[in-house]
UniProtKB/TrEMBL annotation:
Signal peptide start and end residues: none
Domain Transcription elongation factor GreA/GreB C-terminal: 53-116
InterPro entries: GreA/GreB_C_sf (IPR036953), Tscrpt_elong_fac_GreA/B_C (IPR001437), Tscrpt_elong_fac_GreA/B_fam (IPR023459)
Keyword Protein biosynthesis among record annotations: yes
MF terms (GO), sorted A to Z: translation elongation factor activity
One Pfam family, short name: GreA_GreB
Organism: Variovorax defluvii
Keyword annotations from UniProtKB, A to Z: Elongation factor, Protein biosynthesis
Protein name: GreA/GreB family elongation factor
Gene3D superfamilies assigned to the protein according to its UniProt record, in alphabetical order: Transcription elongation factor, GreA/GreB, C-terminal domain
Length: 137
């Protein structure tokens, strides 16, 4: 495996073709540099072929903070749909970029505003559009 920028390893993440295409479009709109590294280092699969244990767009996930042990339920969405107080987090946020394409059991790592590292284990995917037969969301 080849190391990419921002500690994303080739093969560590999986995106559906549609998610990759849509995220590539966001890259043109002042997206964080980590998005480019993510797009360059992911495995890309057809929506119908993505494993049900992979975080895709609009997946609802349960994560457990590695430092506090506190569980959080989040839904990964595009920036226009983000409502952090309601648990809808933008894929372009540090947490969103850390989660997209990960598999259940993996550690998501991101940098907090003060420079410290946030870290949480992806405990479960409570809902994944593709697993429910929705291949176009």
């Amino acid at each position: 495996m080849q190391a990419a920028a921002n500690n994303i390893l080739l093969g560590e993440r999986t995106l559906t073709e549609l998610d990759h295409q849509r995220l590539s479009r966001l890259q043109d709109r002042a997206a964080p540099p980590a998005l480019e590294a993510l797009l360059d280092a992911t495995d890309i699969v057809a929506a119908r072929a993505v494993a049900p244990n992979v975080v895709t767009m609009y997946s609802q996930v349960r994560i457990v903070d590695a430092h506090t042990g506190q569980a959080h339920t989040l839904t990964l969405c595009y920036p226009a749909d983000a409502e952090p107080a309601a648990g809808f987090i933008s894929v372009l946020s540090p947490v969103g970029l850390a989660l997209i394409g990960l598999r259940v059991g993996a550690l998501a790592r991101w940098q907090l505003p003060g420079g410290e590292e946030g870290c949480a284990r992806l405990e479960a995917i409570l809902f994944q559009p593709e697993a429910s037969g929705d291949y176009t969301t």
